[in-house]
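Milestone 3.1: sequence recovery, worked example.
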């Protein structure tokens, strides 16, 4: 019997991950913002001072990073066999190149099944259009939640 390969589509788990990432990424906090030398330290830009699409944060105009490439984590076999689901919270840094580094697992609802490694491996391969601070590309830290759900 000939095996038909599965089509890769953005369905189910992938859509949930995209929705979670879309909600969390706009709140990314810059790692190294520094203050602009042309601005008095107590002055904060207002929404009207920042270009469209930017937001005022800590006296700077910030453009949030945009997710452009996302890989879905593989469900750990041991967890699948035992019917275990999990939610992993990761902290990481999006570099100026758009790659993800310095991944740290903050929380895992089902440790010992391999969810942490699967989530880290997947998020490490994500790519972003990098953040901008006052028009200059900058590294930013962010938190992302990866959910593993059985269908």
């Amino acid at each position: 019997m000939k095996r038909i390969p599965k089509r890769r589509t953005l369905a189910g788990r992938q859509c949930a991950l995209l929705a979670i990432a879309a909600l969390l990424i706009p709140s990314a906090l810059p790692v190294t913002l520094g203050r602009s030398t042309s601005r008095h330290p107590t002055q904060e830009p207002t929404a009207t001072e920042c270009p469209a699409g930017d937001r005022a944060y800590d006296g700077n105009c910030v453009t949030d990073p945009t997710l452009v490439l996302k890989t879905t984590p593989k469900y750990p076999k041991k967890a699948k066999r035992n019917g275990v689901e999990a939610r992993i919270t990761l902290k990481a840094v999006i570099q100026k190149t758009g790659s993800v580094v310095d991944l740290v697992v903050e929380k895992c609802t089902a440790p010992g099944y391999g969810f942490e490694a699967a989530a880290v491996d997947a998020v490490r391969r994500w790519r972003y259009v990098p953040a901008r601070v006052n028009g200059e590309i900058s590294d930013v830290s962010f938190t992302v939640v990866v959910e593993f759900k059985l269908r």
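Residues 1-42 have pLDDT under 50 and may be disordered. The chain has three helices and ten strands.
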